[in-house]
Design a protein that fits this description.
The chain has about 475 residues and is mainly alpha-helical. Helices cover about 75% and strands about 0% of the residues. The two termini are about 35 Å apart.
């Protein structure tokens, strides 16, 4: 039901029509839309069709929701998966092995980005996003079908690892493609609001996956959960993938990419593959900014949503159930605020909102963690809630800010490379690095210091980043 909210809450056609200027406005560059299925473009202005924009946002957000649905399921059912897929005898070794298979997906994400990103710049965003949706759904669904270690022995963990690698490889092309897709469809003055629904999908997917596991754990006995119950959340990915694929296959290509194709056709030339060197070396300044912005975004994201439940349980000896419920509550709060924060970025700009998030983490990380360490439910909720609201500054602004760093010709490829390299090196390693730092130093405030360091790097990136709110994407005509 929570994932279905993507269909209910994304602005409908009547609301989206606000972005379409009245035909009474005498502008010789703007042509009326002749048919809803294919909005017209001109060298000067692209007129977006509200119905297509709405479908594009839904299709992109659902893929992100499915990725994080799997993330929530896998994280919350990790202990059970360890018992199913790895030899019995040492619960700690089982859990480490389970998370090892989980972490393996991060290793192949940059490879997926290097494959799907350039492919999206060559053959189109819509085709590649349909492919990544199929692969993500297939990888998650396959986990639910794998026999246990007791049934096939070492083949079970090997098949689990293979499924995780498929998921990680496809994810390498998902976020950059989805954010590019929404950004290239959205009107310039509404790109922040519409892009914010991508991270709404992230939160909905995580809450849906984690909430389903929590519910099944409460309703099923340990034996039932171990024998068959753990499979149910993964098998749900099959129908979700079919719905997402249906939505993505119904979409037209983005106006920005269609304009690039028209330019090539007008010059009587085929669209050539953009060299990887051009995507990296030719965009090195934008890539550095992308890495810095994604670093602060993902370090704080993984710290709050992935590491904090373990920190509450293992380091502070907090009750596990209450800790998980607090995190889910924080994510629900973030979902409520997300669209409003996205709209704010359209009014005041992306840079002020991201800068406010960096400043907030720099100043409030220590006080928030001290509240969390106080231990009472109210203090933990207050500290976590403060960090969650600061994180919204990033989740609301990044889906529209990151695609605006790159020109249309290399947008998908360069963003995929920069985003996935940063996530793999800094975001996905956050829980491991912080745990190791606490072990070495014995300092329980290390999570706060780590977030503060990330905020400094993010602040530097924001300082050098150009404002993109209300402006056309680089290499694209204005969109209204």
């Amino acid at each position: 039901m929570l994932l279905w909210s993507l269909f209910v809450l994304v602005p409908d056609e009547r609301q989206a029509r606000e972005v379409l200027p009245s035909t009474a406005v005498a502008d010789r560059h703007v042509r009326p839309v002749p048919e809803p299925a294919k909005p017209p473009t001109s060298p000067d202005v692209t007129v977006t069709d509200p119905a297509l924009v709405r479908r594009a946002v839904k299709a992109a957000a659902l893929g992100n929701a499915m990725e994080w649905f799997d993330f929530g399921v896998y994280s919350y059912i990790a202990v059970t998966l360890g018992k199913v897929f790895f030899p019995s005898g040492n619960p700690t070794a089982q859990l480490l092995s389970t998370f090892g298979a989980f972490a393996a997906a991060f290793l192949v994400r940059p490879l997926g980005g290097m494959v799907f990103g350039p492919l999206g710049d060559r053959v189109g965003r819509q085709k590649v996003l349909a492919l990544t949706m199929i692969m993500m759904a297939a990888g998650t669904f396959a986990i639910g079908l794998i026999p246990s270690y007791g049934a096939i022995g070492v083949g079970a963990p090997l098949l689990l690892l293979a499924a995780r690698l498929v998921q990680g490889f496809s994810t390498g092309g998902e976020y950059a493609g989805a954010s590019t897709f929404i950004a290239e469809y959205a009107p310039d003055k509404r790109r922040g609001f519409l892009g914010s629904w991508l991270e709404f999908g992230t939160l909905a997917g995580y809450i849906g996956g984690a909430g389903l596991v929590t519910l099944m754990t409460a309703l099923l006995s340990d034996d039932a959960l171990l024998s068959w119950g753990w499979r149910v959340p993964f098998l749900i990915a099959g129908p979700m993938g079919i719905v997402g694929l249906y939505l993505r296959m119904r979409l037209e290509e983005t106006p920005a990419f269609a304009a690039e194709v028209e330019k090539a056709e007008a010059a009587h030339a085929a669209r050539r593959k953009v060299p990887l060197r051009e995507m990296v070396v030719g965009q090195w300044k934008a890539l550095l900014l992308c890495v810095g912005l994604v670093l602060v975004f993902n370090v704080t994201d993984y710290m709050l949503l992935s590491y904090m439940p373990s920190y509450l349980t293992s380091e502070l000896k907090y009750d596990e159930t209450h800790g998980l419920l607090v995190v889910l509550g924080v994510m629900a709060l973030m979902m409520i605020v997300q669209p409003f924060a996205g709209a704010l970025t359209d009014r005041v700009g992306r840079r002020p909102v991201i800068a406010a998030g960096c400043a907030g983490f720099l100043v409030l990380s220590v006080p928030a963690l001290l509240l969390i360490r106080e231990g009472s439910l109210g203090a933990v909720a207050l500290g976590m809630g403060a960090l969650g609201l600061l994180l919204v500054c990033f989740t609301a602004a990044m889906p529209s800010a990151l695609p605006a760093l790159f020109p249309t010709r290399v947008r998908y490829g360069s963003l995929s490379i920069g985003f996935n390299v940063s996530v793999s090196l800094f975001g996905g390693t956050t829980p491991l690095v912080v745990t190791a730092l606490i072990g070495v130093t014995g300092n329980m405030m290390m999570p706060a210091y780590y977030m503060m360091a990330a905020a400094v790097i993010g602040g530097v990136a924001v300082w050098y980043m150009a404002e993109s709110a209300g402006r056309p994407l680089p290499g694209s005509a204005p969109a209204s």
